[in-house]
Task: inverse folding
């Protein structure tokens, strides 16, 4: 195995090749960018760190299929920012390298789950529509109802429909996100709306799933800006678009 250490920690790699490249930032500084080239069929999937390896075998296999499908949907498209097909973070999928399958006790269970989804040595199970792999989005919790693509990103995708997810709203099963509270500063909210300040904040509409559809901010000068709820969520980094405005302070 090869270990690579950066400011975020140390990653262990066992498969494929590692390319190192010096990248110049906008402010003239340089950093080393590491890209791990892997066989998607198995080597890449062995390193996916999206779920605990202690989960039931069926759940692990479902994750392996979803991760394979997502990766296939991105194949052939090189991201110029990283000279890669996929980021090893939640921007795409969490990839933790050899640390996943080398986990004490449970690592082998994840590898077995990946292997169980292989049809043969070169092909594996994936989700397709009209012969093409779908962009198989997945999330740890949803607030009780998954969001449709049209509400989340503004474009319709037939495979991304809203369905019930009662487990996410169960405080016992999902103690972190069944209920949550966040304090978002005036500065962050103003930046989200591209305003100098925010005097009032109002939920204008909700989607059929219960998420915030549109949210409006008004500056002290009377300038109004309306954002989609999902855009507001992304810019303020709150857990989801299922929220209420409990209090607004200037």
Result:
């Amino acid at each position: 195995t090869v270990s690579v250490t950066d400011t975020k920690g140390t990653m262990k790699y066992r498969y494929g090749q590692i390319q190192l490249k010096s990248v110049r930032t906008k402010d003239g500084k340089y950093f080393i960018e590491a890209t791990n080239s892997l066989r998607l069929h198995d080597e890449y999937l062995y390193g996916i760190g999206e779920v605990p390896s202690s989960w039931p075998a069926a759940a692990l296999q479902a994750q392996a299929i979803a991760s394979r499908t997502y990766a296939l949907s991105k194949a052939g498209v090189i991201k110029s920012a990283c000279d890669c097909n996929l980021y090893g973070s939640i921007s795409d999928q969490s990839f933790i390298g050899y640390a996943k399958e080398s986990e004490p006790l449970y690592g082998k269970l994840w590898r077995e789950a990946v292997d169980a989804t292989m049809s043969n040595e070169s092909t594996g199970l994936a989700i397709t529509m009209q012969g093409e792999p779908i962009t198989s989005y997945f999330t740890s919790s949803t607030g009780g109802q998954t969001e449709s693509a049209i509400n989340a990103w503004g474009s319709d995708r037939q495979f991304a429909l809203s369905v019930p997810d009662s487990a996410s709203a169960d405080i016992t099963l999902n103690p972190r996100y069944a209920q949550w509270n966040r304090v978002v500063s005036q500065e962050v909210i103003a930046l989200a709306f591209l305003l100098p300040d925010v005097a009032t904040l109002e939920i204008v509409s909700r989607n059929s799933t219960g998420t915030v559809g549109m949210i409006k901010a008004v500056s002290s000068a009377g300038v109004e800006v309306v954002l989609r709820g999902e855009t507001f969520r992304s810019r303020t980094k709150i857990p989801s678009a299922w929220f209420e405005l409990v209090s607004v302070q200037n």
Remarks:
- Residues 41 and 120 are 10 Å apart (CA to CA).
- The chain has seven helices and nine strands.
